[in-house]
Amino acid sequence: MEGHPMDSVCDCSQCELRKAFFDSFSDEDLGDICRNKTEFPFLRGETIFREGDLIRYFSYLKSGLVKLFKTDPAGKDQIITIAGPYDFVSLLGVFSDTHQSYSVSVLEDAVLCCIDIERMREIALRNARFSMNLMERMGAVSNKIIREGLEIRKRNTHGKVAYILLKFCKDIYGECIFDLPVSRREIAENIGMTTENVIRTLSELRKEKVIRINGKEIEVVDPAALERISNYG
Amino acid sequence: MEGHPMDSVCDCSQCELRKAFFDSFSDEDLGDICRNKTEFPFLRGETIFREGDLIRYFSYLKSGLVKLFKTDPAGKDQIITIAGPYDFVSLLGVFSDTHQSYSVSVLEDAVLCCIDIERMREIALRNARFSMNLMERMGAVSNKIIREGLEIRKRNTHGKVAYILLKFCKDIYGECIFDLPVSRREIAENIGMTTENVIRTLSELRKEKVIRINGKEIEVVDPAALERISNYG
DNA sequence: CGCGGCTTTGATGTTCATCAAGTAAAGTGG
DNA sequence: CCACTTTACTTGATGAACATCAAAGCCGCG
Fold first, then answer.
1. CA nearest neighbour of B60 among B20, B31, B89, B94
2. What is the CATH number of domain A155-232?
3. What is the tens place of the pLDDT at every residue in B18-47?
4. What is the rounded CA–CA span in Å between residue B101 and residue B80?
5. What pTM was computed for the model?
6. Model pLDDT for residues B69-103, shown as the tens digit of each residue
7. Of A97, B9, B148, B229, which sits 20 to 30 A from A5 (CA to CA)?
8. B147:A101 CB<8 A
9. What is the topology classification, in CATH, of domain A12-151?
10. Which numeric CATH code is attached to B156-232?
């Protein structure tokens, strides 16, 4: 893992995640975690870990945006999903596998909260409510990935592009106007198309006045039409 | 859920799953589960539950083969995965969702072991080791589904068909000769192709002497070639 | 300044879905 | 048990969708 630990300014009792998740902690466990967590800042473009690396931390994203991806023998990347604040970067293998089965790199400057995996396991093993919460939360992430995969699979090129644009606009940024955090090629790697066809489809959506494009900046001008294209295509 | 409970002949202390999974149970919990589980037999073609049904049971497959699938508004099915003995039929939503997010129906006569979801939750909440085992096991299933989705997505038609044939032969039956438990259409629904192209591709593999076809019976004559097609295509 | 990566568009060809038509197999009702 | 209906399977022809190849402009960076 690149980067150096930050000064741990975060008091875990104030962590936004606590409400949803760490409420199952006793004060004792919370103090334990708080003293032993490490926050790592990462810059756009940096790699957090690679497929095959030893799993040392349980980690989740405090801020920023990252991509989870696999690289095939020919060197082509396949993006599994894009994760944002309070998403786990560790998928479900984290307690059963010893090595990462995918790579993670940074799309927008990020802060990662890391807890030693053995300590995490200890706490999970003596706190059933926490295990349960963990399972629910990690399950939600896995289910979202599975669902997205199925949605992508059944769409044609126009539907795929519309789908991912809506994901940026609704899920990730919550606004109709945003800067794409990824290259055209990365969009292609995410939805299983070629870069050229992603570009061509974006241009067509622009010509049809569904979106406006200015480099990385995208504005969804006609969300209803985009929804229609996503659902029909 | 169709079907009527079987006489519960299985003594849970003898359950094959116990070794891998239920060892985390105290004798007390095991007895609790054992008295309160129900085994349901299902016949080929029956539906175990449908998308949208209330989740009442935590359930796993003792024997047989089932498909998990979603049906879109147009009535077209998309197969998520095929599950075999000792796979969970409940995916990770089972503790966090109230309703099923997919349907399950039977490909080969099956016996399903069902445990009331509330009882399961109670036990998980007082037995952290069990929660942990559950998370590991359910995580493995989810990860397999995600991985398969990515593998399918990156292949062309020949690669997709080769991939799923190898799955039947290696993962499900462990033999080079087997009866397909699914129709050509279901294969298509699983790997995202049209029925016609599945058939065409099978015929081509037959002409190339990679497989032999006799109705539902498939023999993989040249496994190395099939692997090559799966990895290249 | 020049190199490499990203973006864009066009031309071309392959792959794949769709349409059509027919045979085989399996289920249904009299 | 047979006629009938439906579903599954198969092949061919066609066209649309999509990948590939090629070329050029753009931008950031050493």
1. B89
2. 1.10.10.10
3. 665 666 777 777 777 778 889 999 999 999
4. 11
5. 0.93
6. 999 988 899 999 999 998 999 887 888 899 999 99
7. A97
8. yes
9. Jelly Rolls (2.60.120)
10. 1.10.10.10
